Fold each of these.
Amino acid sequence: MITDYPESISHISLAYIFNRFVGRIMRKCGEELWMRKLEDDLRNYYSDIKKILNCKAKIKVKFINDLSEHIDIYVQDHPNAMIEEITTDFGTPEEIAEGFLLSMDDKDKQEYWTRHRIFRRFVISCIVITVIAIIGVYIFNYLYVKESTATIIYKTTIESEE
Amino acid sequence: MKSSLDKAMRDNFKKGSVEMLILALLSIEEMYGYQLSKIIAEQSSEMILIPEGSMYPTLYKLVEMGHLKTEKRLVGKRKERSYYMIQSSGRERLYDLEREYYNVHSGVKSILKYVESNTGDEK
């Protein structure tokens, strides 16, 4: 019994040291992995919101910045939060975008859609003009080259006959 | 048709309420977005929860109208936080909204009292 006693103390000390030192390192690594995963998930979350949100680019950027600041503070208050909890508390990207658009002024919405329509028409016009220009160049090239080739053949024939 | 009218009414009511609540809290002290939504949830015992998607557009609109001013402040070593502070036109707007709210509230209360008294008579 007496001889066993110092051994058990040394076992306890070793276990204690292991738990304190190595355990701390493992916990730190686990925390970093968790943080990195959360950052990646949040990046995708903000990216999904950006895709769905139909508003001026300046307002979109400002909103995403403010929302990420908001969620950062939330994560500080809830250290073990994962993306699922954040989605439950804040809403899915669709819900956030819907709430945002419902809160926008009708005037702002109309202004955005008018600009969007003008931009779309401009892009379509550019594409049509480019296609017409390409066809025109091709036709012109074909006719001009054909005519030039015919002239060269004709001149060569006359010269050879002479 | 009726459900879309109901939804439109609810949305308009929500918009007006959110604006009033935000201005009311900012009349006490300047706050940042997370703080605003947390206080609203806590003080209303989670009866009123303003989603961030609704709160921020309202804040932007109030800043645009000059009722609020926003300022970025350094928090910690590198992070910045946007604080909102009420302006004098914001206080006037708050006063108008509060008056409107109390009028509507008083009107609704009177109607409910009338209904209650008539229901009591019938019994």
Amino acid sequence: MNTLLIRYRVLLIGLAVLFGSSGLRGQVQSSDAKGNGPVIVPSKASGALRFNTEDKSAKLAFISKSSGDTWYFGGSGSGAIENSWASIVNSGQVSPKATAELYLGKTGVFRSSGDPSPGIDWIHFRLGLVGSKIRLVDLERAFAEQVQKKLFTGVSASGSYNRLIGGSTVFSFGAGYERANNVDELTEVEVAVETTRTDPQTGATRKVKSTKTAYQGSYLESNTLPLTLDLFVKPSAVALLGLNTFARQILSDGRPKTVIGAGLWILKEKSPAIALGGLVAQLDDAFKASSPDDSDSAGKRIKVSLVVNLPLFNR
Amino acid sequence: MSMHSVSLVFEGEVFSLYVEVEGKEVHLRFDGDHTWERKLSQLPIEGTLDLFCIAKGLSQTECVMTLSVDDHPGWTGRDTVGASGVLVFKTSVPVT
């Protein structure tokens, strides 16, 4: 399955172009630096390109939903590039990642859509499959085994409760399971191999250099149990700005890691549920569960991302 | 009492929508973008057509509700969600 997802990553992005004539419009909600956030509008059919320092992806989604307190279902597929912009520019290579998701939800759990009192809530369940391919480098190994390709597949499932409070606040909390790897914690490096040939007659040498993007460090896969908490606020005094704060508690092999952060978002005029882009800052492993001996300073664990969400299609 | 076709179109980036026609809930289909639509055929109407709609979303969300009877424009309501996050459309449209 992971091979199919990776092989057809180009098709997923290609579908986004083909669907241009259908008039679908993109929308992306506020989120953390990795693009995970509350389902503000109970999902939409959409096509969108997302660019920030943490994530480069194209996503296509569909939904089936009716008005009233009804169930809805949908799905999405996305292709992403895991390695940094610098390595893409330098080596022209990408570490691909493909994701497919199905979701199911229902509006009007404790507050009905037909109730004229303020507020509406909904529950959202998600089942996902992710596949990615990276290169790992370990210079301690024999030369022929120093660079190895690694295919990763992971299943994830989650559920969340979401609520609109008044006309300005969206609250969400959720829990789930995710098979994950620690690529984010590895060091991205460029592996260069030089091959030299010498002309036996003239003594001239010719060098051929190839460069590949790889990751260095102790690669691990683990079962994680993420807990999420998101709060989005649209101040009434400021029409086009929204603020979200979030916390992620990720239990991994008994070690809890906490991510906390906040984002400032530019909202679309007359449609504030659509975030056009924003600035997100987060502190990974806030309580230093990975490095309790204080070897890792907070400065290294702070991530600041500028997010630009580009709808692929416009009506 | 005569039979008529009624078309309902709601546009707006809202989180939830509830619609009643002649006192009965009607489910509008979401197009996956920002439009909810439904066409009712052979709806019995006597005198006036009553429409009631509740939309909930973020404040300053612009919404438009359009009602057509027998493919003729009947009524259009345009409003913005207020600070409470609730927007109500309510109208009675005469039908001949």
